[in-house]
Amino acid sequence: MAETEPISIVWHSAGLGQLPVDDSWIDDVEAARFSGMTYRKRRDEALLARHTAKTAVARLIEASTDPAALRDVTIRNAADGAPYVQLRGEHAAIQIAMTDRADWAVTALARGTARIGCDLELVEPRSAAFADQYLTGPEQELLASAADPALIANLIWSAKESALKVLRTGLRRDTRSVEVRLPAEPAKEWNRLEVHTVEGTSFPGWWA
User: Fold this and answer.
1) pTM of structure
2) Residues 26-56: pLDDT tens digits?
3) Where are the alpha helices (DSSP H) in the chain?
4) Which residues share a beta bridge with 202?
5) DSSP β-bridge partners for residue 75
6) What letter does residue 25 receive in the DSSP assignment?
7) How far apart are CA 53 and CA 106, in angstroms?
8) Is 80 exposed, middle or buried (0-12, 13-18, 19+ CB in 10 A)?
C-alpha cells in the first residue's frame, strides 16, 4: 500500500526458523527493550520482525547483513508508533512498513517521503460479527458475493491495516472510515486494489 503512485517498493520476508540464535545484531536500546519481554514467543516474534526489517534495509542500501553491520541499522518508533529507519544513529530517507503473523515477518521499504503500509494475514474464517463491526456496507456486499469468503475477508482486513499504517493512525481510527475496492481482473501473482478514505483520499495497493 502506497501513499502515492508510481512508487518503487521493495520487500523482504523471513520465517522464525531464520532468526539468528544469538542477539549480536541488535543494539543496546533494542536489547533493553527485548529483555523486558516476559513471554518467549512474543519476544521471538518481535526479534524476527526487527531482524527482517534490518536485513531488508541492509539489502536496499547494498550493505552487509552480518551481525556487526546490522547493529548499525536501527528501527525506532515515532511518538505515534510508526517505525522509522536510522543508519548509524542518523534518520534515513527510507520509508518502512512492518508486519508479522504466524511466525512469519514481512518488511516493505521505499526511498523518499511517500508513506507506505503492509500487512500479513492468515486466510481463515471470519465471523458475521467481524464484518458488521469492521467492514463498510459495500465491503460486506463484496464479501457476501465472494467465491472464497475467507480470502476476501482477510484481504479486506489486511488492506485496511495497510492503509491505516499509511495514515499513521493504526486501529485508533475507525476501520470503516477506509474502504477497500477490488478491481475486477483475473487473479495473478500480484493483484491491484485501492483503499478510499472518507476524506476523499485514495491509496493504490497490491496483494498476493
Assistant:
1) 0.92
2) 999 999 999 999 999 999 999 999 999 999 9
3) 28-35, 40-60, 67-71, 128-134, 137-144, 149-166
4) 196
5) 85
6) T
7) 8
8) exposed
